[in-house]
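Hello again, I could really use a second opinion on something today. I've been staring at a protein lately and its backbone has me curious. You're getting the sequence in one-letter code plus the fold written as tokens. I'd be grateful if you could look everything over and explain what you see. No rush at all, and the record is pasted right below:
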Amino acid sequence: MADQGISESARMLVPKDPASSMSIRDIVLNQITTLSTPFLRFGIIKVGGRATIIKLKTGNLAVFSPVALTAEVKAKVAQLSASSPSGTVKYLVAPDIEHHIFLSPWANEYKDVNIIGMEGLPEKREKDPNTRGLKFRTVFTPSNKNDMRITKEFDDEFEYEYVHSHQNKELVFFHKPTRTLIEADVVFNLPATEQFSMTGEDPNGGISTKLFGSVTNTRGNMIWQKRFLWYGPGSSDRKGFAASAKKMYEWGEFDRMIPCHGDVIEKGGSRILNNATAWFRENY
């Protein structure tokens, strides 16, 4: 089953039939594929969920924020791997301490995978009998993040930053060949139109979704999303958050940003990221 190995508390947040509600889309043919699915934060807010698959030049695949491993997803993985006889899913990335629900099904299906996460996540999963047993090969901490190396094939294609000062302990990745940013909860781009497109539901439906969406969209000057980061997820260590924001700023201009929550951004991605984090860079 697609939901084996996930916690009981997470089951109510994900769709009962993920295959019928998931949108599988090639963002860059034979290079970037997204798996967009409904997801309810706290069981009520329509934020959507998204996995991103990057095919490396070696033919191996890196999967960020894995979602349900359906038969259709397995078929897509096989298609992406077909052009390289030795290619397989080689990296599974939990981009923050909340985005780990489906790690186990993927790790059980694709052996000898490098599971990438951050401090606290292995311990969190070990406390739950439904999720324990995974071996994390790469674990980011504040003390090792500046010296972290994953593998040559991965590091040849990615820049990355551990935003440990975010309350969810964010890992942000920049795919250099396609100039694409992949992130989880640093920036939201609601409404989650694509992620609810297969359900027939209004992605803006419900007062909680409307209220949260008014704060976490990327329209205009993004004043509410700036406030959300400043007074919320980044408030406990603004100086540390600023250091991460400055590092990501140095990655330069890019158009495409793939968030876990909300629609994929194809234009002005760096402007949106830098706008959202501007108060940190400007004040520290």
The first strand starts at residue 23 and ends at 28. Residues 8-283 form a domain with the Metallo-beta-lactamase; Chain A fold (CATH 3.60.15.10). The mean pLDDT is 94. The two ends are 48 Å apart (CA to CA).
